[in-house]
Amino acid sequence: MKRRFVETIALALLRGTALAVLLATALLLGSIVKGGLGVITWEFLATEPTQGMTHGGIFPAIFGTVCITLLMIVMALPLGVCAAIYMVEYAGNSALARVIRASVNNLAGVPSIVFGLFGVGFFILFLGRSIDRVRGGGLLFGQPAMLWAAATLAVLVLPVIIVNTAEALNAVPRSHREASFALGATRWQTVSRVVLPQARAGILTGSILSISRGAGETAPILFTGCAYFLPRLPIAHLGIPFTGLSLPMVNPLDQFMELSYHIFIMATQSTDATLTRPIQYGTTLVLVALTFLLNLAAISLRVRYRRGLEAR
Amino acid sequence: MSSENALTPRPAPAPAIRTRSRRSRFGEALIETLLRLNGFIAIAAISLIFVFLFKEGIQAFRTIPASHFIQSQELDFDNVPQTVRLWQPVGQNPKYSLLPLFLGSFLVALPATLVATLFGVACGVYLAEVAGKRTREIVKPAIELLAGVPSVVIGFFCLATLATLLQNLLHTTFRLNAMVGALGVSLVIVPVIATMTDDALRAVPGFLREGAHALGANNWETITRVVIPAGASGLVAAILLGMCRALGETMIVLMATGNAAQVTLNPFDSVRTMTATIAAELGSVPQGGEQYRALFLVGALLFTLTFIINLVAELAVARMRRRLAL
Q1: Which of A11, B65, B116, B147 is the most buried (most CB within 10 A)?
Q2: Number of folded domains in chain B?
Q3: ipTM for the complex?
């Protein structure tokens, strides 16, 4: 009788705790939705800040976030996926594979601000200034810029992408590879026609999750390219020779505004943090919505993918 | 840890007979070389961090005596030398005591880990052992959504909502203090601990549970006396990795702990962590100066600390695998 009683109480406590965590999540998101929903209008999303950042919208920050995320994807995704393919399908248990494996595992726990430190020290001050010295003619690369911020984020998400891709590749049964080899296929034919098609959904899921992590990070880009306020978008007009036309292009050597940085700076260091609270809530809601869309896409993709694997 | 699982090698056997044409063999070699090059680039980028951080950090010792990282002497108004433990890198007589930063980091990380362990482990046990399949499919993604919230958002929530709530509740002296930061950080690491606990417990083979039930144990007794002891190393790893994240969390502590570098053990004081110090000061330091190097030293310390915790956690997971013979 007593045992039964203890069990009932204990299990109820476990349920209660899980519920409490869900409630905390709901409180967190609820407070942001409540504060931000009223602020979000078309104008808020599509215009730039005015009157000393106390009015207006956040369009430059959205634009900057999208740009830097895309740039980060270009830098990190192919590299990470290919490195994972090499490690799982080719390297086996070689020394290189073991070193990558160990460092990748440990890098996942390195604080993001350390990546920021690395970005400033290596990309801007070392790499950028070196390029400038070789190039001559003043400071161009050796200063905070979208290029370096994206590179820093790329280094941050690289190990995450590698781990997730490796997981997806390992989920493909080994017997499929063996069958392909038995039919006389080479290793690359096996990888490209047997393994990758099956692992595609898993790789995609992992990549989306990694990207959403990168898109929400603030600490690594604090000093590598974010600006408090820029009166113009980081766009340069690239002249097309002989036509007299110019093509607007995102300029990766420019600084940029970014959503998460915008939240941080508006909440802690703007001229009047209380007055601009609604803007802060609105910006936060936009950022949360953005990362949630990515996360939801990944989670639903994974549920479908798992079902597919189980059905097989 | 799932990552270790993913990265353990599973080499497929090489094709036994080579009957390819020369052209396709060349293509194979090219692709393999390219992929290997890729691996090298990835590892180079990763190891650069390590090398660079320590190279810059160690240079701090060239101009700052090692003892000054703990305490230094300063003349007070009556010209009497006083021992001070301060982090004041700007000024005529800069001070670089790491003590307040260390204490700050742990005053946030320890309570955060404690709270998150309580909730995270309970959540993980619930997910793995109690929840039905349907509930699980709702609760687990919800917890993962919490893990996907950017830390700056949680920092903002602490700053705007939680700090006021806590002050009205406890009447603390400082609105922004270590405890507000700790509660915020625990929101980040609850999902980490919960999912890892869930993974660890689900790795415990089913026949152990069945054996316990057959001996007459009820669900709760099975959980506490069979499943949790079997997965204990996994739980330790989960908690350690949670603590690792807590020590490395930057935006939340930067926004919510008040950022006053002081030697204190009171979790309701304003504190400044190692991460927040880097984040707050890196923007304004001249390259190659004393403070710049001191910040890299803090970064290198942080790196070492999290590296060690990670390593211990990994060993714990490896131990569990061996014991369960997985």
Answers
A1: B116
A2: 2
A3: 0.87
